[in-house]
Prior knowledge:
Blueprint lengths: L1 H13 L5 E6 L3 E4 L6 E10 L11 E7 L2 E12 L2 E14 L2 E5 L3 H4 L2 H7 L16 H17 L3 E4 L3 E4 L3 E8 L6 E11 L2 E14 L2 H11 L1 H26 L1
Parallel strand pairs: 2-12, 7-8
Antiparallel strand pairs: 1-3, 3-10, 4-7, 4-11, 5-6, 9-10, 11-12
Helix pairs in contact: 5-6
Amino acid sequence: xxxxxILLAAPLLLGAAKPVLVxxxxxxxxxxxxxxxxxxxxxxxxxxxxxxxxPTKPLDIAVVVKGPVEPILVREKQQIAGIWMxxxxxxxxxxxxxxxxxxxxxxxxxxDERTAAIYELGLRDLQLSPGGGxxxxxxxxxEAGLLDLRKRQRLYAxxxxxxxxxxxxxxxxxxxxxxxxxxxxxxxxxxxxxxxxVVAAATREIEIGKSGFERFIAVAAQRxxxxxxxxxxxxxxxxxxxxxxxxARRA
Length: 251
């Protein structure tokens, strides 16, 4: 039966006008526990060419891992009278909570600006959806500030030589997942690029969630917000009272 399926699929593959990507990831789910200090995600796969023959000129690969989009408020600090204070702010309606791209060559060597913007290939081409109402120069300033902040938090990253391609067929890339990564459903997108055009694309999903005691706390905070807040206040008061009692006893 398996041999029959392969024989039936072969004519379809041979008659395909464009290459086909067969991607996969090393982990379809990542669990965050108390000891979680980050992870490394391996994206790998193969390129199936029409007729089964690889071209003489190698193609390029770019892989993008995105986290769930979320609204975010960015605050700008300035030093006023010797004190750092929030001087201005700007809201983005949606921004990826995590973004990492790896490519076989720098993205600007692979595609033009229009193609990079369509597929969001690179940090400068992310669609951040600003809240509106602000002057263009202010929006650009806060976009640059958001990108810089998330790069320092290791939530945004670019690796222009992060994809290895073997024999024009097999590829692999490694994406680092930091310890403070948000939970949710992530997408791992793979793009096959030839002469500045995206000729094939494929997507896989990755679930990142909390488990164990961390999951219990997160679920409790969502389902019983009032009781969770009350318990947090009582715990803080109890710890404060215990610390005061301990110092008074030692005095």
